[in-house]
Write a structure and sequence with these properties.
Blueprint (H helix, E strand, L loop, with lengths): L4 E2 L5 E4 L4 E4 L2 E4 L5 E5 L3 E6 L3 E7 L7 E7 L1 E10 L8 E9 L4 E7 L9 E6 L4 E5 L5 H8 L1
Parallel strand pairs: 2-6
Antiparallel strand pairs: 1-9, 3-4, 5-6, 7-10, 8-11, 9-10, 11-12, 12-13
């Protein structure tokens, strides 16, 4: 089993009730509704608005790290580190809250550590109905066409 220890250093995140839907497993933020992130000083508040909000986690390599290097079409609001062990000896990944005013959003990432044949850098493309995650060493014609636009 893979357990993740998350060290929370950020503020609390409050979500407006108009953005939340009841699911069979509990409550979720509706992917069809848009919001806006406001920093109140003590907390973050997600209010109804015109922007798209994403939580992006880039998995690290064994005993390595991961990071988001560039975001096209959005901005990073909150960056948090996810530890694969209590002190992060087994790896430290990045989890970020991203706000974008348009779709598609292109997120460039890189990672280090033992990757077991996986890519050490790549791009995540988030569209309205789907999401592509591709390492730069993995050729994909459909993603190449999206990168040209």
């Amino acid at each position: 089993m893979n357990f993740l220890w998350i060290i929370i250093k950020v503020k609390k995140i409050w979500v407006n009730k108009n953005l939340v839907e009841k699911d069979k497993d509990g409550y979720i933020i509706s992917p069809n509704k848009c919001g806006k992130i406001v920093d109140t000083g003590k907390n973050f508040v997600i209010k109804p608005g015109n922007n798209h909000i994403f939580v992006v986690y880039i998995e690290e390599g064994y005993r390595g790290y991961s990071e988001i290097t560039k975001i096209e079409g959005g901005k990073k609001i909150v960056e948090e580190h996810v530890y694969a062990s209590q002190r992060g000896v087994l790896g430290i990944g990045e989890c970020s809250l991203i706000e974008a005013n348009k779709i598609p959003v292109k997120i460039h990432w890189k990672r280090d550590g033992r990757l077991y044949g996986g890519a050490n850098e790549g791009i995540l493309i988030i569209e309205k109905e789907r999401c592509y995650n591709r390492g730069f060493d993995e050729p994909d014609e459909e993603v190449e066409e999206l990168l040209k636009n």
